[in-house]
Amino acid sequence: MLQHIAKESLIVLFIFLALLVGGILREVTKKTGIPYTPMLFFFGLFLGIYCIQYSVIGEAMKMISNTDPHGILMIFLPTLIFESGFNADWHIFKKQFPQIFILAFPSVIIGSLLLMITIKVVLMYDDAYYDWPGAFMAGSILSATDTVAVLALLKEVGAPKKFNCLIEGESLLNDGTCMVLFQLSSELVKDNPTSTGDLFSLFLSLTVGGALLGIFFGIITAFWIKKIFNDEVLVVNITFISCYLLYFVAENIDIGIQISGIMALVSLGLFMAAFGKTRISPEADHAVHTFWKYMVYCAETIIFLMAGIIVGTRVLDEASDFGYEHYIKLFGLYLGLLAARFISIAIFMPLLSKWGYGLTWKEVYVLTYGGLRGAVGISFALIVANDELFPPKLRNILLFDMAGSALLTLLINGTTAKKLIAKIGLMTTSATKKKVFNRFLESMLEKVKRFETELRNTESYLNFVNWTDVDKLVGLDEYQKIIRENHNYIQSEKEKEKKKSIQLRKLSVHKTEEGAEVPLMSQQSMSEAEDYDAEDDERLIIEARNRYLM
Question: Would you tell me the crossing angle of helices 431-458 and 523-549 to the nearest 10 degrees?
């Protein structure tokens, strides 16, 4: 019955069904607060397990599950990596670059080595599954983080922009580092005769060569965009073709040296963030931003749904060959992932806490817990699973461990990260900020009501309008609810401050041996101590807001 349906039609069907599912789950996220990407992954897992045998949709999913992993990377990585670099705040990135470099390079290398030790020493895998080079390759693949869900969560709870940029910058370079380590370690696993000098030269060609090629493409792209006047379609077209053409050239064209396509994309994105954005006209800037935002949404939706389907159709079928001890080791590997990431960051805390905007231990906990594993790592594992030059047992166990780690991190970390952030008090908002925000909302509501009154009095054709429904559609009730909640919070904080003030006054009085009370600080000093912080914070926040609005 399905023979008359072309393969291309099944692929198109899957893409649009994936976007339909994504639209529904996006609405579920808004209503429930459950992170979007974990929901996509588990929905794909459900489809892969239970719906693969059903009619046209099942055939489409079978075709997708057999997609070449190199093709998956070719389709989705250029969009995800270029957009992340292109929309980075260049000034914050420059300030945080020493921190990002540490997190993305030496920290990842140490994390990969720790995972290698975990696999061989702690979990005691024998050489039939993982030899030492194979364990290091697995460590490099398992170190590839996917922070999409955590970034969305941090933006939702109002995390500082500098912390968002740090996580996004680390994730941006992390994939490139893991890809380079994967390529180096795969040479060792395949027993290709390579010396230490050959490995070092390969490392330089992959990283430095990729960065230089990305800058070269960036110069051409920025120059071309500069010549365009008031044509947002052409600007979007140039940015789109440049990132995909760059990745294709880096990965497939022989220019004498091996080049990492991911490192080239990172370089292109950051170059455009620093020097290309200023060449784009204000009229075209909005169109470019909207286009890439939608492209990333589509890529994230499809790749996470695909990852779930692949795990459901391929990995779980092969997992039947593994005994219960492998599932126990998988959970041990999950704990090892968290421990390795925490240790690899904690080692550099003396530097990370001083460089850039600094780093606190609370932020380290979020960085550790938010290091989810996702579609990129699964794609790397699929490359190994499809390559017959690797030992058969290594191919099976690596895909099983990578898919299982992604499953556990998305299920446990992805759904509980918000509770962790609230528990450690990382994103607490001060009463002063809420007070300033309330003033802004009250001012906005006053202007809206004034404008609404003018419409009622001057526009006769609006006499039959139901203004109560208009207020609901505008969202006035929601804003008033926020104002009340903020007001209650401010009042509770004032009560706490009064209690602290009473304690401060008690501590500020010293009783002599005769029983006389001698004040240790004057009334004016106590008042200044109580009021200085709040008044100073409020003044700085208002000044910053005014400068931003100007």
Answer: 50
